[in-house]
Known about the structure:
The structure holds two protein chains of two kinds.
Chain A: H1 2-35, H2 40-45, H3 54-64, H4 70-82, E1 88-89, E2 94-95, H5 96-131, H6 136-150, H7 153-167, H8 188-222, H9 225-232, H10 237-259, H11 261-275, H12 280-289, H13 293-321, H14 323-328
Antiparallel strand pairs in A: 1-2
Chain B: H1 7-10, E1 15-19, E2 47-49, E3 55-57, E4 60-65, E5 71-76, H2 90-103, E6 112-117, E7 122-127, H3 135-140, E8 163-169, E9 173-178, E10 191-195, H4 199-207, E11 213-216, E12 228-242, H5 267-276, H6 279-285, E13 291-293, H7 315-324, E14 337-338, E15 341-342, E16 344-350, H8 354-367, E17 373-379, H9 381-388, E18 393-398, H10 404-410, H11 428-438, H12 443-454, E19 469-482, E20 485-486, E21 509-510
Parallel strand pairs in B: 1-10, 1-11, 16-17, 16-18
Antiparallel strand pairs in B: 2-3, 4-5, 5-7, 6-7, 8-9, 9-10, 11-19, 12-18, 12-19, 13-19, 14-15, 20-21
Helix pairs in contact in B: 5-7, 10-11, 11-12
Amino acid sequence: MDFTISLLYFVVRKIIRLLLLIGAVAILSYTLMCFSPVDPIDAYLGPAIMRISPHQREVIAQRWGLHQPPLERLTRWVHNVAQGDLGISTIYNEPVRAVIGKRFATSSWLIAIAWTCSGVLGFSLGIVAGVHRDSLLDYSIRLYAYIVASAPTFWIGMLMLTFFSIYLGWAPICCAWPVGSTPEEATLLQRLHHLMLPAATLTLVGIAPIALHTREKTVEAMHSDYALFARALGEREWGIAIHHALRNLALPAITLQFASMGELFGGAILAEQVFAYPGLGKATVEAGYRGDIPLLLGIALYTTIFVFIGNTLADLIYLLIDPRMRQRRGWL
Amino acid sequence: MSLALPPGAQAAKDSLVLAVGGENAEGYDPLLGWGSYGNPLFQSTLLRRDADLNIVPDLAQSWNLAPDRVTWTITIRPNARFSDGSPLTAKDVAFTFSKALEAGGKIDVSPLESATAVNDTTVVLKLKRPDITFIQHLIGLGIVPEKHYGPEYGRNPIGSGPYKLVRWDEGQQMIVEANPYYYGPKPAIGRLVFLFADEDAALAAARAGQVDVLSLPSSLARQQLPGMRLHVVKSVDNRGLMFPTVPDEGKTTPNGVPVGNTVTADVAIRKAVNYAINRKALVDGVLNGFGRPAFGVADDLPWDNPAIRFQDNDQEKAKAILETAGWVDHDGDGIREKNGRKAQFTIVYNAKDSLRQGLALAVADMLKPIGIQAIPHGDNWDRIKTQLTHTNVVVYGFGDHSPLEMYKLYHTPGPEPMYWNAGFYSNPTVDSYLDQAKGSASFEESIPFWQKAQWDGTTGFSTQGDAAWAWMVNLDHTYFINECLDIGKSQMEPHGHGWPITANIHEWKWTCK
């Protein structure tokens, strides 16, 4: 009973925080967009700019609601968002919700695979490095993690593309399924084939923080009193790691894993750009370049919620798994 | 696994993969501007320009502009059908034009007063005032079906063009098939796949043999692609230097942007720059030979005036013009002065565009020996268009299949300046020719006036006259095309590389067995 009330309290508090966060993000991004030097109408017109009279610009501004003063537009936008209407994307001429929905469906594959792989691999590598501290294996894993953590995602993506697609010809060069065939014709295998390289890039990058973090914790656990005690009882190193340290390692790793959903999103933007993978990341870049205020705001809100959910899940899982945390927060 | 094979290798004769850019992210809606560059593919237009840019009938059988110069009467072919089989009538044409007025897209039909269907095959378009350049809308505006048109139309276009949309995976590809109801000759290629990949990805795909038609910037055109040949298309896609033609008197635009440049306001400076530039060297050096010298905004178009050509790379003539006008180097620093002002200006270019940068740097070098100091300066596009354009020499690119562009570039600007005529060029004689051209009774009749506006023997905006711009080069558009594909004769293309190649797509043929 107490637990249910605590959970309810937790959820309510989180929702209030989310609302405050959304408000702040909306106002901040809107203000930034207002100061952007990109004129959305010019960006929209492109070379057609020569054929357009001032009158026609008015008509376009009218269609997009740009003729109103900024504050009024913000108020109207907030009002519409409250009713679930994110407006119409100017570059796609389609409701923002539909644009995000379609693109996210494509991106979610990429993010889900990269997220799972980087979590599992990062965690395993971290433990291996931690158990074999200062061995050649540990050095290699750390070196790899440091290099990848400091290299930009798009650069790694370009290296992967050059090597595996162009030089070796193993992976496709672009797109989410084979050129010329429809998504219905494309088999699961073909889709995975097209996902391989961007997902691998994101995974390679995502491994680094989890591996490094897990390694630290492993080292710590392997030098703890209970590890010493187990060692005294004749337990082998790997036995200690699996039977005693793993439980303690899992928690920070899970937190980190869920908190990294935001980074993954950022990484996906770059990876999609490099691999011409038509997901939300690519749409974000387009929206920025071409001054599509409704779409960019919509994506900002969407990512805010996405990252927030990731963090909240991390908190919640922590609470559910670790009784000490519940105690500290007065849940028990 | 057979599906993984590129369709080009599978059924080569009936299916092509094209990577020519040109995804219209907002959908294929002519009323929002789709097709006004190149060809709308899914829709057909009343008139069309053939390979030699002559105006020829398409959906229209006959067209006539009444002596009042504002009433177009157009008779359309009676047998036209949309891709869903329903008939195309004059009502659809009238609907298309009236709806375009309020659609708020990339086309501007604002000269139109009303569009009415008289019967099933006759439509009457009434303009607010005479404007012969309106004919461009008869050429460019694809006709949409009244009963299918709505906010969703752009994603499900139904039209009477040679092809119909089968599916569109946004950001990735578009598949189209021949429209069985098309009234024209059946296209030889039944299925086209347009690949919307970035330049690098498209090139890589072409190397892997997955692409049949690839558009590529000329800087990348000097390479070999297996099974493909280089196809070079002439264009009016030009690059020129825009000069501010009014002196700096501390004035600003209504938005507070400073106006005027006292150095370039002197016609002697503008002429000297024009004569000093070695255009052939620009083509060879900056464009890798893919282009031709530009002398005007409409080189080789029907309304181009051949009399504006001149001998460039003539430093002696440039120097003489400057001397006569009083620009002399008194202090011996290699830069001329007049009234204590140095012959110096900044050439602004879009920093992202390496071609424009190359032109700006090369021209600056060419002007040094005649005693003019030009300082190249790269900046971002949005700042150039709003802040820098009225006080600096700017590298711009234009080139359209309609002389309306000439009107906008050279006619005295209205109270609110736009990017066209950013230099505030104004000449009452030129204005009068341009207005007469616009008010002509037919397109043919307007041509002499467009030509006179350039140079009438005594005045004009070209180098012989006011030298309002220094046009430098016309680009060639470069494509790689499967050796087995015959794409016929390509039209001289407007500004914008890629999609215009599809203008004659219904004539494309596969030649290999």
